[in-house]
Amino acid sequence: MLTIGLFYGTDTGNTEKVSKRIKEVLEIKSKNISVELIEIYKKKKEDMAKYNFLILGMPTWYDGEIQGDWDLFISEMNQIDFSHKKVAFFGLGDQYGYANYFCDAIGIFAEIVEKNSGIICGKTSTEGYVHGFSKAQRGNQFVGLCLDVDHQNELTESRIGNWTEQIVVEFYL
Questions:
Q1: Cβ contact 39:57 at 8 Å
Q2: The CATH number of the domain where 97 resides is what?
Q3: Residues 80-85: contacts with CB under 8 Å, at least 24 apart
Q4: 157 and 147 in contact (C-beta within 8 Å)?
């Protein structure tokens, strides 16, 4: 059985709702997957370091601000050795109101994972999004799944479905 640690931070409940949906979809897609949902609040590096497969979910606030619980965890994150770990990101953002900061948080944390020798999985196309700039963007891809539940909620379910298919494949490699 493959166990995935899905860590998320939330203020409004949207990231938690998406986290639960991702867990549900992944466990339906493969009976060999178990997803442990963990809210990042008051966690330490040891809580995350014990997993070889990670999904990290976080919203981006306002002008590129990191959600409070993730902001407190960033110093712990910098201390984790991600060697031999596969990490996938999903982020929530507002591509219209904050077009130049869309899902910046996952870009910031992806840099930490890469700097600490982790393998980033689950990159997605920027096609179909309307935004100016994002720290999560590299060329025509995001470093993970970006969701705008305020302006494109009708696409959320299909985006989660496609992304989780990709995660299953990339985590098994």
A1: no
A2: 3.40.50.360
A3: 80/45, 80/48, 80/49, 80/116, 81/49, 81/116, 81/117, 82/113, 82/116, 82/117, 82/118, 82/119, 83/116, 83/117, 83/118, 84/52, 84/119, 85/51, 85/52, 85/53, 85/54, 85/113, 85/118, 85/119
A4: no
pTM of the shown model: 0.96
**Long-range contact set of residues 168-172: C-beta below 8 Å, sequence gap at least 24:** 168/26, 168/29, 168/30, 168/33, 170/86, 170/88, 170/121, 170/122, 171/2, 171/4, 171/53, 171/86, 171/88, 171/121, 172/2
pLDDT digits (tens, 9 = 90+) for 22-65: 999 999 998 889 999 999 999 999 999 999 999 999 999 988 89
Under DSSP, the state recorded for 96 is T
pLDDT of residue 172: 84
Which residues constitute the domain of residue 112? 2-172
3-state secondary structure of 56: strand
Strand partners, 61: 65
For residue 135, how far is the Cα from the chain centroid?
13
Number of domains in the chain: 1
Alpha-carbon distance 36 to 29, whole Å? 16
